[in-house]
Every structure is written in structure tokens, then in C-alpha cells.
Amino acid sequence: MDDYGISPGKLFFVGLLSVILTVDAVVGLQALYYWQLDRLETSDELYRPPAKLKTLLADQQKRLTAYGMVDAEKGIVAIPIDRAMTLVVDELSRQQGTIAVPMGDKR
Description:
- The protein is 65% helix and 7% strand.
- By secondary structure, the chain is mostly helical.
- Strands 1-2 form a two-stranded antiparallel sheet.
- The longest helix has 39 residues, at 8-46.
């Protein structure tokens, strides 16, 4: 029988070497993936906003939406930002003689 110049020993060796290199590459890439994933999770912890930020943002939101006294001696009060924008638009409308409506206002 004709073997076409193919040696079974060389064929087995090349096949085995191919399998070993493929498995090695897959395991190496998987190890690299999990190493990077671990580094990513660590960096997420480093860049997580501090707990103080949540209280600061809540305080600022409260100050933007509430009435309050800023300086009683000078008569300075705080009003919600929506109301302040409406008052400014109304004042500018009276000065210019045109009607200006702020965005989001349903008039």
C-alpha cells in the first residue's frame, strides 16, 4: 500500500504538538482575562463615589427646591430654582414687552 510520503510518527507528533499549543494558548488567554477582570473590579472600587457625595448632592437638591431664610438682617430669602426662573422670565417679559415662557412651563 502506498503511504504518499506521510510518516505516521511525524503526523502524530505534529497533531499532539498542535493540541498542546492550542490548550496552552487557551489557558493563557483565560488567565489573562481573569487577571484583567480582577484589576477592573479593583479599579471600580477605587473610583466609586464616596458616601459623602450622596449626602452633599441630596443637600444641594434640597437647597434648590426649598424656601428658606439666607440672611434675616438683610432680608435675603431663598426660593426654589423653578420659581426663580419663572420670576426672571416674567420680569424680562415686562421689560421687553414680549411674552417669554421658560422651557417646561405649561402656560
